[in-house]
Amino acid sequence: MLQCKCLIFTLVLLCTLFWVAGAYAQGWYEAELAKAEQKYNEGFFDQVIDLVKSCLNKGDLTTAEQAWAYKLLGQAYVSKNEPQLARICVQKLLDAAPDYEPDRDQDLQMWITLVEEVKQERERQMQQQRLPYARADSTKKGGSKKWLWIGGGGTVVTAGIIYLLVSQKEQKESSGFVDPVGRP
């Protein structure tokens, strides 16, 4: 009985420790990202990049924290005139928060333009992924007619086989011959 109580106490203690550690980690990410945002506002872009990368490398960020991290990282890259790295950050930001809209009053115009470009690229890609299915039927000559003929032909063949099987069975029954049982 005492062993059971000790085991339960140990499990409860471990669960509590894991919960507290998780809550601490989330608070740590928020504090680090807030520090990175402060550094961004002060113009220390390399420090922003270091702080945000350390958060992203540790993992376990919430979706909102990922979006915040990629926004800060991308804005730091825009400010450092590194558009390719900034574009990657915008793509990851939109993966985490597809409805993200830049703040037109506070964000740099280059950031706003980059976010709009990436969103337009994504929209074009989505349309192109949907288009091949629509084009397949409309661009081929007689595309839908071909399937109509194949389906109709299959139906006629199936009906013919059924007719032959039924007519053979009726002929055997009407001929009067009975197959002897047990004959090889």
SSE layout and pairings?
Layout: H1 2-42, H2 45-58, H3 63-79, H4 83-96, H5 109-139, H6 143-175
Features:
6 helices; elongated; 184 residues
Element string (H = helix, E = strand): HHHHHH
Q: Give me the Rg, rounded.
A: 34 Å
Helical content class: over 70%
What general outline do the C-alpha atoms trace? elongated
Q: Domains counted in the coordinates: how many?
A: 2
Rounded average pLDDT:
78
Tally of contiguous helical segments: 6
Fraction in beta strands: under 5%
CATH architecture of the largest domain: Alpha Horseshoe
Number of strands: 0
Structural class: mainly alpha
Name the CATH superfamily assignment of the largest domain. Answer: Tetratricopeptide repeat domain
By CATH reckoning, the class of the largest domain would read Mainly Alpha
Please provide a brief summary of the model.
With 184 residues, the protein is mostly helical. It contains 6 helices and no strands.
Summarize the structure in words.
With 184 residues, this protein is mainly alpha-helical. It has helices at residues 2-42, 45-58, 63-79, 83-96, 109-139, 143-175.
